[in-house]
Amino acid sequence: MMTRKLGSFTSAPVGLGCMNLSHAYGVPPSEKEAGELLNNALDLGYNLLDTAALYGFGHNEELLGKFVKARRSEFVLASKCGMFRNAEGVREINGHPDMIRQTCEDSLRRLQTDVIDLYYLHRWDKNVPIEESVGALSDLVAEGKIRDIGLSEISADTLRKAHAVHPIAAVQTEYSLWTRNPEIAVLDACADLGVTFVAFSPLARAFLAGKLRDVSLLAEKDLRRNMPRFYPQNYARNLQLLDQVAVVAEQENCSLAQLALAWVLGRSDNIVAIPGTTNLNHLEENFSAGAISLSDEAFTRLDQIINQHTVVGGRYNDVTQAEIDTEEFA
Ligand SMILES: NC(=O)c1ccc[n+]([C@@H]2O[C@H](COP(=O)([O-])OP(=O)(O)OC[C@H]3O[C@@H](n4cnc5c(N)ncnc54)[C@H](OP(=O)(O)O)[C@@H]3O)[C@@H](O)[C@H]2O)c1
Questions:
Q1: Res 141: pLDDT
Q2: Is the confidence at residue 26, as pLDDT, over 90?
Q3: Mean pLDDT of the region 257-261
Q4: From the alpha carbon of 152, which atom of ligand 1 is closest?
Q5: Distance from CA of residue 90 to its chain's centroid?
């Protein structure tokens, strides 16, 4: 199997994002179905599982502890701190060292493991200097509770400050044909510092896979309802771009989802993609995209069709946008 470097580990080019086994899009699968999907993923060769304290407010980490604990040596376990459910039961971003330590202890317990391989700061808490949060993570490495440190949705400047405190193994940020922000500076900074780039939502939260045509059917609590690109009028215009992307997929002899994943992976050897799915067929289809190389013509054509100038609507609403640090296009 082809592998890519992921910090001090190696991973298949495609890892599994586990978030939507607990929340985010529509109704999550039952625990039994989630357990089957996780085990199927490992059987297929997935060896990177990505979770977070936030997902399902702990439920997602519990799923991994319950269903794949016995296969712990078969995968790189990635989780995240700094964004979690607080004592009042609401989502909070908090990067204070004591809170990072507390979240790590909670995650280890839920995951039923002694060590987390790759532990990300899910969001930089802008009230806490990044050096302090990374310092706390560095202490956890020294104590053997985590192995590698990652950051999520941070700018190139913040990455460089953090890397000066402790080597950063990976940056996880949204990257896909319709979200090009890492191309502003973060991809270059990662290449420069030897940091792996982990692309989340590489299928544009289903848009690029082509099966979501009618956003009015999204469940009431579906996160995409609050994302401007998924607002009905914007989405209708974005679907027109997708119709052109479908022509390229046909020429490249792959599905739309595979085209989107092969595009992300083809941008650099330094990238790992972590699509999420609740569907066993999609699981297999996505994993096999790791072996697909697109033609130069496909890269050129896709860049022309879909980019920051042609996509309609921001990726986040104003509140969520204020929480991230990744560079924005002017
Ligand atoms: N660091 C962060 O802040 C952050 C934020 C968001 C996500 N993430 C991570 O990234 C992972 C993936 O992101 P994501 O789930 O938001 O987005 P994604 O992978 O771009 O899209 C997932 C959606 O695409 C659909 N899908 C997947 N494969 C498909 C296929 N082959 N054909 C048709 N539809 C397909 C899924 O539906 P089905 O279930 O029907 O397949 C699901 O609705 C998450 O699980 C999480 O680990 C991280």
A1: 98
A2: no
A3: 98
A4: 1
A5: 22
Task: Give the domains, in start order, of the chain with CATH numbers.
Answer: 4-204+264-291 (3.20.20.100)
Active site residues: 55
Sheet holding 146-152, edge to edge: 16-17, 48-50, 76-81, 116-121, 146-152, 170-174, 196-200, 271-274
Evaluate whether 25 touches 222 at the Cβ level (below 8 Å). yes
How many C-alpha atoms does 146 have within 13 Å on its Cβ side?
28
**Predicted pLDDT of residue 235:** 98
Q: Which two tokens stand for residue 39?
A: 């085990």
CB 84 within 8 A of CB 45: no
**179: burial class by Cβ within 10 Å (0-12, 13-18, 19+)?**
buried
CB atoms within 10 A of CB 5: 15
Atom 38 of ligand 1, nearest CA residue: 277
Residue with tokens 């109704």: 27
CA of 114 to the centre of ligand 1 (A): 28
**CB neighbour burial string for 31-45, b if at least 16 within 10 angstroms, e if fewer:** eeebbebbeebbebe
Cβ atoms of 62 and 98 within 8 Å: the answer is no
Q: What is the pLDDT of residue 264?
A: 98
Q: Report the nearest-CA residue for atom 33 of ligand 1.
A: 209
Atom from ligand 1 closest to the CA of residue 123: 3
Share of the chain above pLDDT 70, in %: 100
Compute, in angstroms, the gap from residue 97 CA to the centroid of ligand 1.
30
Q: Could you tell me the distance, in angstroms and rounded to a whole number, from the CA of residue 200 to the centre of ligand 1?
A: 8
Q: Which atom of ligand 1 is nearest to the CA of 210?
A: 33
CB atoms within 10 A of CB 274: 23
CA of 165 to the centre of ligand 1 (A): 32
CA distance 49 to 55: 13
Q: What percent of the chain has pLDDT over 90?
A: 96
Q: What is the rounded CA–CA span in Å between residue 303 and residue 221?
A: 33
